[in-house]
Design a protein that fits this description.
This protein has 1056 residues and is of the alpha+beta class. 38% of the residues lie in helices and 19% in strands. A hairpin with a 2-residue loop joins strand 19 and strand 20. Keywords: Actin-binding, ANK repeat, ATP-binding, Calmodulin-binding, Motor protein, Myosin, Nucleotide-binding, Phosphoprotein, SH3 domain.
Length: 1056
């Protein structure tokens, strides 16, 4: 078993030290030191590093083995310092804070494109789904969330082309019961084209690979190179991607979110229709566009349910409204080839975008709940982009990233320092770059107006396709914002000094993409479709919308970004800063200058300085008191006095040093994370203590009913097959006789999610029939035998330590053998070798093993009864007993209830007196059972009081000597009276006889420590001397220790 489970990671000898886990601990704080630390860890496959509570993640470009169920168990409920940095630690912190503080949480994952943000989001979703409870409804919600990730991923390709903010909604019990998705800026240009070496949206390739024969015929599906929208890059397949299998998952996901078969068919019909639209090409005739081959009009018209002539007309011409003298006149304008291609592509992009929005709405409806309680938000959005050619899409993407950087600055650098001043905390200000000036340059509505406002004004005056509009935009930008120090212009565009560096934007196509206008002709065409599904994707009221100014793409993204900021500011934020180590996308490839640049623009140096000089934790007094009230009786359940004094009382109760905290006007500030961890650990212990009390009471209640049933089942297993010991038929079953809940040295060998069904100290016999004590543990999966050995070397040399001697999978057990007499022997037969054990609780153990074996294998456990048992011994060793082979145990009737052992070569002879008949069955008594366990009767005469109808009389008062049986009758004879008096005085003068010495009570020495599991039991430590009051054949003895009496297990002690 890994030492991870016994020590903190920094105490573990075999874990390689690689840099520092938390960069607050760096000796030098500069970009070079930060980059060097990240490199050391990256090269050793440690991709996560902390800056206080901020997680830095470096994309490894390979699969790492740190995301299994073992890590989920390791990080669940653990403090940040207990384990190495990991995204699971941040996810667990979010989930626990949501439950404890009843506050919404969010995680902002930032970094440039390709830094691993989407993978990080998936790991958070996966972790939360695993630790957040069960139940059919909950599992259904979890399944829905995971399917939704798959569905949107397949319709959007990589996250660079699609941003999303998803909220996992929880009940007050912490179980996910709903969700909500917000969709940002699907890159619609990818619908109709792709860069060299890249693919289009996944759903195109999935449909072509996974469609049925009927679908292929109905939808006109052929190979990818047939479609113009797919053959531009020459890339059709991706390594390790199975499009056919993924298509099946996409169809399943649509079913899970509630789409009917007709709706699913409509979705695929539209996808196919878009592909066929792309094959419509145009040629020039007299400066006007005509369809090059009308054969290519047939399939898209058929799939979209529109007239072929209508499609042809709307792609090559459009109707324009012009006003003359207050009158509006409609004019038909014929398009050129460039405009016709634009119109075709605009229809394809509109169809795909609206279909994507439809799927998002369907998912939201499927996960909708009546009212919101708590939620965890995960922002997975496109990263900062700097390409050779940067256009309108890159401008919008970088604007959103600029807004996210602004949130980080506001909450971690600016707000933190301002808060220290407001609260009167001693503080030396730290300088940093505030990118608000860049955000204002882009989005400001007041003088000086921002780039987006100028762009919207230019778009409002565009006509037709708007030749020259882009140059007009550039001229206006030069005139209105050229004085801004973060703006420059050049002959084809402009430059913005973003937080991540200077980006040069080409204005070509800016205005057209910002208009994002679908001509009314096209909308009318789609509204005429014979398919109601397609009609529903175009719900516009064209007459009403003619009067208003259309919403531009820039305005939409600005509104979405500001709404997103408002949502995030209402949550408790957590941060993951993702770093891309190279452009080659190869593991262990490190580009120093590239990483250093990211370290600079992400502001990691300033983040470390603020965290190092500042306080790791701050909380308003009221919230702090609520969270840690349980630590003292004065603050629980509610502090009655001044909140500040209550906080001071709590801090003094845990003996926190005064230099570790400061009290502001309304908040407490704690400097070191270790001090906070101390509070959390003590709080956890308090809750655990109370929880154990409640659990113990409940378990006891459940156990009584459970073990009564088990006792009946156990009796049936041995009925007519084996003699029974006296007092064993009605014995109570307890299950755990060694208190494993309080024995971490034993629990370390058992899986964290394994429930211990039975635990007892048993006697094990080896090949020479020598005995040794073992802890026998039974879970739903394994049978464990745990022994003890003395450490031979290292810092713990000479100490006794628990060792896992054997672990047997339940399904590997072949059978169990017993004798027909009343002894406590049983043999567990396994393929390699057998284990001979002796336990006074064998019946209880066998009943549990029988049940768990059947659950695991769907078979009955073979039980064999014979007075001559044979068992296999383990291979190995040397000497006369070295060879592998078998041994025998022969049982014979002897005298008494205790076994007599006689080893002889390869046979052990066991003698024991006759027990209860084999057909003996338990009584129907519902009390604590037939085992005395040495308890003293503390209620003599109680039956008389219960059953008598008479009132209890009062004892008469006696004024004199108590009468005795042989007392002489008192009469008026004076002589007799004097004689009696004389005898009394004479006897009083006689010397008192020497009292007989009390016989010395038998004693025993404790071999192991034992924690009482019930109020009438006795706790003791190893080597304690216990006075034995009564030994019971059941194995529970009654004894006395340090003035206290109680029962205890006899197999924990040895007589002295």
């Amino acid at each position: 078993m890994s030492s991870f489970y016994r020590r903190y990671h920094w105490q573990t000898q075999n874990v390689k030290v690689s840099g520092v886990d938390d960069m607050v601990l760096l000796s030098k704080i500069n970009e070079e030191a930060i980059t060097d630390n990240l490199k050391k860890r990256y090269m050793d496959d440690y991709i996560f590093t902390y800056i206080g509570a901020v997680l830095i993640s470096v994309n490894p470009f390979k699969q790492l083995p740190y995301f299994t169920d073992r890590e989920v168990e390791l990080y669940q409920g653990a403090a940040q310092y207990e384990n190495p940095p990991h995204i699971y630690a941040l996810a667990d912190n979010m989930y626990r804070n949501m439950m404890i503080d009843a506050e919404n949480q969010c995680v902002i994952i930032s970094g440039e494109s390709g830094a691993g943000k989407t993978v990080a989001a998936k790991y958070i979703m996966s972790y939360v789904s695993k630790v957040s409870g069960g139940g059919p409804k909950v599992q259904g919600c979890k399944t829905l969330l995971l399917f939704y990730i798959s569905l949107l991923a397949n319709f959007s390709s990589v996250s660079r082309f699609h941003g999303k903010y998803f909220e996992i909604q929880f009940s007050r019990g912490g179980e996910p019961d709903g969700g909500k998705i917000s969709n940002f800026l699907l890159e619609k240009s990818r619908v109709v084209s792709q860069n060299n070496g890249e693919r289009n949206f996944h759903i195109y390739y999935q449909l072509l690979s996974g469609a049925t024969k009927e679908q292929r015929e109905n939808l006109g599906i052929t190979t990818p190179d047939y479609y113009l929208y797919m053959n531009q890059s020459g890339t059709y397949t991706v390594e390790d991607v199975d499009d056919k299998k993924d298509f099946s998952e996409t169809v399943s996901a649509m079913s899970v979110i509630g789409l009917s078969m007709d709706e699913q068919d409509a979705v695929m019909q539209i996808v196919a229709g878009i592909l066929h639209l792309g094959n419509i090409t145009f040629r020039e005739e007299g400066n006007y566009a005509v369809v090059e081959s009308e054969d290519f009009l047939a399939f898209p018209s058929y799939l979209l349910g529109i007239a072929q002539d209508g499609l042809k007309k709307k792609l090559t011409s459009r109707v324009m409204d012009s006003k003359w003298g207050g009158k509006t006149e409609s004019i038909s304008v014929t398009l050129n080839t460039e405009q016709a291609c634009f119109s075709r592509d605009a229809l394809s992009k509109a169809l795909y975008a609206r279909l994507f929005d439809y799927l998002v709405d369907a998912i939201n409806k499927a996960m909708q709940k009546d009212h919101e309680e708590f939620n965890i938000g995960v922002l997975d959005i496109y990263g900062f982009e700097i390409f050779q050619q940067n256009g309108f899409e890159q401008f919008c993407i970088n604007f959103v990233n600029e807004k996210l950087q602004q949130i980080f600055i506001e909450l971690t650098l600016k707000a933190e320092q301002e808060e220290y001043v407001q609260e009167g905390i001693k503080w030396t200000p730290i300088e940093y770059f505030n990118n608000k000036v860049v955000c204002d340059l882009i989005e400001s509505k007041v003088n000086p107006v921002g780039i987006l406002s100028i762009l919207d004004d230019v778009c409002a005056t565009m006509h037709a396709k708007g030749e020259g509009a882009d140059q007009t935009l550039l001229q206006k930008l030069q005139a209105q914002v050229s004085t801004n120090e973060h703006f420059n212009s050049w002959n084809k565009g402009f430059i913005v000094h973003h937080y991540a560096g200077k980006v040069s934007y080409n204005v070509s196509g800016f205005c057209e993409r910002n208009r994002d206008v679908l001509f009314n002709d096209i909308i009318e065409l789609m509204q005429s479709s014979e398919f109601t599904f397609i009609q529903g994707l175009f719900p516009e009221n064209l007459e009403a919308e003619k009067k208003g100014r259309p919403t531009t793409a820039g305005a939409k993204i600005k509104k979405q970004a500001n709404n997103l900021v408002q949502t995030l500011m209402k949550c408790t934020p957590h941060y993951i800063r993702c770093i891309k180590p190279n452009e080659t996308k190869k593991s262990r490839d490190w580009e120093e200058s590239r990483v250093k640049h990211q370290v600079e623009y992400l502001g990691l140096r300033e983040n470390i300085r603020v965290r190092r000089a500042g306080y790791a934790f701050r909380r308003v007094f009221k919230k702090f008191l609520q969270r840690y009230a349980i630590l003292t009786k004065e603050t629980w359940p509610k502090w009655r006095g001044d909140e500040k004094q209550g906080v001071l009382h709590l801090l003094k109760s845990v003996n926190m040093d005064q230099d570790q905290y400061q009290l502001g006007k309304s908040k407490i500030f704690i400097k070191a994370p270790e001090s906070l961890f101390l509070l959390e650990e003590m709080r956890e212990r308090k809750y655990n203590g109370y929880a154990r009390v409640i659990q113990q009471a409940w378990r006891k209640h459940i156990a009584v009913r459970k073990y009564v049933r088990m006792r009946e089942e156990a009796s049936d297993i041995l009925l007519n097959k084996k003699e029974r010991r006296r007092n064993s038929l009605n014995r109570n079953f307890m299950g755990d006789y060694i208190g494993t809940d309080n024995r971490p040295e034993i629990r370390q060998f058992v899986g964290r999610r394994e429930r211990i069904e039975f635990a007892d100290v048993v006697v094990k016999y080896d090949r020479r029939f020598k005995t040794v004590k073992r802890d026998l543990i039974l879970t739903s999966k394994f049978l464990y035998l745990i022994g003890r050995e003395k450490v031979k070397q290292g810092p713990d040399k000479g100490q006794i330590r628990e060792v896992l001697k054997r672990q047997i999978q339940l399904e590997k057990i072949q059978s169990v053998s017993l004798s027909t007499l009343q002894d406590d022997f049983f043999i567990v037969h396994e393929e390699q070798y057998d284990s001979v054990l002796e336990s006074i609780f064998k019946t209880e153990f066998l009943s549990l093993l029988y049940k768990r074996y059947e659950e695991k294998t769907q078979r009955k456990l073979p039980l064999k009864f014979n007075n001559l048992l044979e068992f296999k011994v383990k291979k190995g060793g040397w000497g006369p007993f070295a060879s592998a082979g078998s041994r025998q145990i022969q049982f014979q009737v002897g005298q008494g209830d205790n076994v007599v052992l006689k080893p002889s070569s390869k046979t052990l002879i066991v003698s024991i007196g006759p027990g209860l008949p084999k057909n003996s069955n338990q009584s129907t008594s519902s009390g604590r059972g037939g085992v005395n366990r040495g308890r003293q009767n503390s209620s003599r005469g109680s039956m008389l009081r219960r059953q008598s109808s008479m009132d209890q009389p009062t004892l008469p008062r006696y004024n004199g000597l108590r009468p005795t049986q042989n007392q002489t009758k008192i009469n008026n004879d004076m002589g007799s009276f004097n004689y009696t008096i004389y005898n009394i005085f004479y006897l009083a003068r006689l010397p008192k006889p020497t009292p007989r010495p009390k016989p010395r009570a038998p004693q025993c020495r404790a071999l192991y420590a034992y924690d009482a599991q019930d109020t009438d039991e006795l706790s003791f430590n190893a080597d304690d001397i216990i006075e034995i009051v009564n030994e019971d054949p059941s194995g529970w003895w009654f004894g006395r220790l340090r003035g206290r009496e109680g029962v205890f297990p006899g197999n924990y002690v040895e007589k002295i």
